Amino acid sequence: MLISSEIQDSLQKSSWIRQMFEEGNRLKAEFGEEAVFDFSLGNPHLPPPDGFVDRLREIANGPQDTIHRYMPNAGWPEVREKIAVDLNRRDGLPWQGSDVIMTVGAGGALNIFLKAVLNPGDEVIVLSPYFVEYVFYVRNHGGEVVECPTTEDFAPDPEALLKCVTERTRAVIINSPNNPTGRVYTTAEVEAFTRALEEASEQNGQPIFLVTDEPYKKVTYDGVSSPEIQSHYSHTVVITSHSKDLGLAGDRIGYMAVSPQIPQRQELVAGATFANRTLGFVNAPSLLQLAVADCQDQAVDTTEYEENRRLLMDHFDAIGLEYVRPDGAFFLFPKSLGLDDVAFVREALKEKILVVPGSGFGRSGHFRLSYAVPKKQVENSLPAWERLVQRLRATQTDGEATTS
Predict the structure, then answer these.
(1) Which one in 196, 292, 361, 388 has a CA-CA gap of 20 to 30 Å to 151?
(2) How far apart are the first and last CA of the chain?
(3) 266, 293, 320: which is the final residue of a domain?
């Protein structure tokens, strides 16, 4: 065997998202792009806002004498200061540039945080359903994942949290707006959840970190906004990327910010900065740092996402697919019509619809679809969705008739 047993095992259990993405490429090659309805990958296709493009062009066309050199591993100091100013604008807390580390996306930020805080066997709680890469990130650094179920409508459950916490619990990761459900946690839900986390921290005799992973924070609909988690819990670490809000998924730029309410927070910043270097990131890309620093108040135009969301919700309502209304991100997480979710996904493939089983996100009986796709694809897919549901319902009816 050329690779480690751990990686071999991880490959066998690897993300359904990528598997379906690759299957989509195969089908497109066989049947043509327009005949395949690939909703598998949350791959934002909207272009970055003009303000970002203008700023990036300005930097690239400006003086080049310093911007390509090595810098502090935490990032350009002036960029970190601008991020701190934006955080202060959002929540009123006394953020400083020294609280911020510029990172290679949210994935880089999560890995340097986990590397900095985990001892072997420490536990990290994730709320199911969850972004599947959390599992691999925690295991990268010797930790153990504990799945904490959310409610039927995917709200964080304080009682479930208290049952999941042990003396080995080091951190909890939450994600709102959520991937895969599109759920945005309300202020009341956040307050109840953080009260439970405070209680758990007191029982453990040390604070449990709350990591808020929020790359979709600016992608919300119908006037809904996502609460500032750090305003409700002192030991919060804010992690984000600009993959979705600025349409920079391939450019890998984000940050980790350690709440100014954490005593001796510079120890955590120093540890995560060291991890940024020794994990091989070294520093976040220089040009991207400088460009996003002045674009914290900008975002992509989400009109097409909103239209896709409305088209799918209206159609699913009409054909009887059940889902929790998504107020953010660009995902729907419907129920799989009472079928095993993997079986549902395989049936959807017969209509050339590519979606991802909910069990890949820690919640069986559902499937995830991403509507970060061209509107024409959504419109063209509607008859295929109807055929799929009619066929599966007919099969279920026939099965009931046979057994009666």
Answers:
(1) 388
(2) 52
(3) 293
